[in-house]
Specification:
By secondary structure, the protein is an all-alpha fold. It has five helices and no strands.
């Protein structure tokens, strides 16, 4: 089961942008795709059906959205309490633990999905 894919031109747009701007565009594109998938999944769940996620990229896209919000809240909470080097260490550690959590409970290595 799945949904008809709407043509997605975001990949072409991203490739044409300067390197420093690409991360924001990729996060926005991932958010749009994940939101579209999430809304479809919610509708199916209400109908008593489970959506069949066909690729691990969908988990990656949802994770990017989560990490964007998480790191913003993380920074707000810690930035005035710890030094910059401690903040860098803690944010790296949070990313590693998030990676390990996904790997442990889904068997999906997000580093491999990114390749």
């Amino acid at each position: 089961m799945g949904y008809k894919q709407i043509p997605d031109e975001t990949e072409n747009i991203i490739e044409k942008q300067p390197e420093s701007f690409r991360w924001n565009l990729m996060a926005i594109a991932a958010a749009i795709r994940a939101r579209r998938t999430l809304l479809a999944a919610m509708a199916l769940n209400m109908a008593g059906t489970k959506y069949d996620y066909k690729t691990d990229k969908e988990l990656l896209e949802a994770s990017l959205i989560f990490m964007e919000v998480f790191m913003s809240k993380f920074y707000d909470h810690f930035s005035s309490k710890v030094s910059k080097s401690q903040l860098e260490w803690a944010s790296t550690e949070a990313g590693k633990q998030f990676h390990d959590l996904i790997l442990k409970f889904t068997g999906i290595d997000m580093k491999e999905v990114l390749k």
